[in-house]
């Protein structure tokens, strides 16, 4: 095996440079995550949380589209619907804010660029999963289930549009609001004022992504921006921490306090309008926002604790793979579900049958996402390798 002494000088220098760069990258990762230990530069408990979030989302989506009564008519369907709420979208949005705040490479420009990409991708997904299948199968009953028109679903505001707009906001906040306590206060302010904004402007396709309350608005920026802002504040607190165990205990205590405060507001305060409006999962006032945020702050330390104590690693590895490809898996599973609706119909299956459909959809989405990742990586490598030119004699 050649050594640095026998290598060509240029190759030895390049190896030294690569080694130095790799060490600097790992050091930067440790600084960004404070005392939290990483595996290959990643926080495994966050990957587990994100992997579980996409699993829960898939099984919720099949209930919402295929099960009779949206899955609410059975205990099994209700269970999957609940798993697709607090442990899913709120967890994903908080971890997105945390990772954005922890990376030294993210800022205003990267937030805007990535945010616009995700925002546009949300409408592209609407076209692929709903509009095109409705055009192919113009069944009046199917159209009725989707609001009566084939173009209405194109304007759905889903989690991709929310993520895109959130990243656009996170960039300036990360740059100009350096104190994590102020970022946390901003998150609470967003949750508090959101009920006052819903429906302002009459409900247009321009304002719907911000605070719309129409039929096709699932994830408006207000109040959902509170979660990535919470994650951004957690990143700031994490950098300042000195002990991982103590940090997780603080997260858990803060989560318990938020749950108690939200429950107290929901039960003891008679007001049900303004900032204390209870609302629903997609548009909820301060009490529900505190409950959901508190759950996330309890859920993440629990997964951190479990990850350090589980002897088996197959499931964490699988969930980590889902997390690494979470955007692709999310896109593919919705496209598969949308096109399956042509063959199976909507709201026709018992909850157990819809749940059974979730498993092959999840597996197929993951495998297709892995295939796409390998294809994209191969293309990037080919672009980096200069084409060989014949030597002249």
Question: What does this protein structure show overall?
Answer:
It is a single chain. This protein is an all-alpha fold. The chain has a domain at 40-84 and 310-377. It has 16 helices and no strands. The chain has helices at residues 9-32, 44-66, 75-83, 89-102, 108-136, 140-145, 159-176, 180-197, 208-211, 221-224, 226-240, 244-268, 286-307, 314-324, 326-344, 351-384. It starts with 8 loop residues before the first helix and ends in a 9-residue tail after the last helix. Residues 1-31 have low confidence and may be disordered.
Itemize the secondary structure elements and their pairings:
Blueprint: H1 9-32, H2 44-66, H3 75-83, H4 89-102, H5 108-136, H6 140-145, H7 159-176, H8 180-197, H9 208-211, H10 221-224, H11 226-240, H12 244-268, H13 286-307, H14 314-324, H15 326-344, H16 351-384
Helix pairs in contact: 2-3, 2-4, 2-13, 2-14, 2-15, 2-16, 4-7, 4-11, 5-7, 5-15, 8-11, 12-13, 15-16
Structural class: mainly alpha
Calculate the mean pLDDT score and round it. 88
Q: Largest beta sheet, briefly?
A: none
List the quaternary state of the chains: single chain
Distance between the termini: 33 Å
Rg, Å, rounded: 23 Å
Compressed to H and E, one letter per element, the order equals HHHHHHHHHHHHHHHH
- Beta strand %: under 5%
| Total beta-strand segments | 0
Number of alpha- plus pi-helical segments? 16
Helix content: 55-70%
Low-confidence stretches: 1-31
- The outline comes out as globular
